[in-house]
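Most newcomers find our protein records easier to grasp once they have seen one. Read left to right, the backbone structure tokens trace the chain's path through space. Nothing more is needed to start thinking about how sequence determines fold. An example says more than a description, so a record of this kind follows:
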Amino acid sequence: MIDSETAQTVHVLNYPTLEVKEKFRVIYYDGEAALALLRLYQIDKNPRWLETVKAMFERFIHLKYWQYHDHWLGYCTNELIQIAPEQKYIEFGIRNVSSYLDYIKNRITTFPTFMEMLMATYHIIAKAREKGFGKVVDKLINVDELIDTIHTRANYQRTGYFYPELAMYFKNPERILGSFFIKHHGYRVRIDDIEHYVSGYVQYQQVFKEENNS
């Protein structure tokens, strides 16, 4: 639920009464809501959805949401910039990652959302330069470091993949072979995690395989 005047979100409602259960639960719910509205706008072009997202972003920017380095905020910022490439959105999207690169690059867990967030930032930068905001990009982020971090994470994420030589040590190898897991959660295999892994790798291949072939 989104307040039409303040653009503030309400995260959890009780069903079927729709009474407020939790006004705020976790920061990424706001990014998910914004992304969902942008996806809806891309389908039906109803300006109401886009204006709502822009109002939400005024709040995100005012409250410096970029400091949370949230992947869903990265996704929705990229989608908004593809539609409305304004400097304030570009700055927000880049700041969401720029001070976090060293942490991402050296993180021992395979968090697949890192790759998605990095690729979203890559697309933001590409759009920013296309629209003449190259100086803004260069001021906020070391692009070479970003690309190096992308390649590092793409390689490291393979440690979260069930290759045959790893799956063979588990109770039912056939069931997990070829899937992705989260090691620090007890080798958990979950549809949501696999989606993030695959999504990140697809974007990575689309960008860098094409560049290598050109």
Notes: The chain has a mean pLDDT of 96.
